[in-house]
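so the lab meeting is tmrw and i was supposed to have these ready like two days ago... anyway. pasting both below. for each one the top line is the aa sequence and the line under it is the structure tokens. i havent really looked at them closely yet so no promises
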Amino acid sequence: MKSFRLKSVLVVLFLSIAFVSCSNDDDEKTPVVTTKAALVTEIKGPATGKVNDELSYDVTYTVDNACAEFDKISEVTIGDVKGLQVIAKYPSEVCTQQVPEPKKTVYKFKATAKGTIEIKFKKSETEFLTQKVVIE
């Protein structure tokens, strides 16, 4: 009887160790990504458009290092003026490609009314780069 009990305890102990050692705790962690506003240097696109037509603009921006990637376009306010800014994401690892080249993304929008629209992207900490569009 003691032999059976000892074997049972040993089996339970062995299975417990095997279960704990097979956990996913040792898997690679997801890299942490940092985001930061990138400054826009150029906006290219049509100067005119029609109501409810989608217009596309090529937006060129600068990043801190070559490992940065586009994340999103978000709203920003400088003083009391509202505009847009490009957000870039940076990996947490050290970037070995230190010489960044200007990057591009496409901004699309659809006007719902006639008139002149100003597309404003953050150019520096204190000003916007503006593209005027006449909607007919």
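ok protien two:
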Amino acid sequence: MNHTRWKLGRDRAVSEGHVESEEAASEYAEIRLAMAFAKAVYDRRQALALSQSEVAERAGLTQAKISRIEGADTVPTLPLLRRLAQALDATLNIALGGDREEVTFIDRRAA
């Protein structure tokens, strides 16, 4: 099953009046945050025209770890967030609130 279909199915059920349990809503929020972070890392890496291996080398990680991060398969620690921001020559901003998570890397030279 692809992620798009999963999201649409969930959103459709909620819009039709299906009420999620608190646990399910919490898990969905965690997944949304992981996916927002994964997309931000991928987008910044692409903007810099870097491979996963190049980012991994800059951050002192393995290419497999970068792949897991971009695949939303890992929960990053604070030290890992710092290493990634440094490796991507950026400042990392994370805004959390309500049903919205925003993760952005801002080019240090632009700040």
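from a quick look at the 2nd one: The chain has a mean pLDDT of 86. DSSP finds five helices and two strands in the chain. will dig more after coffe
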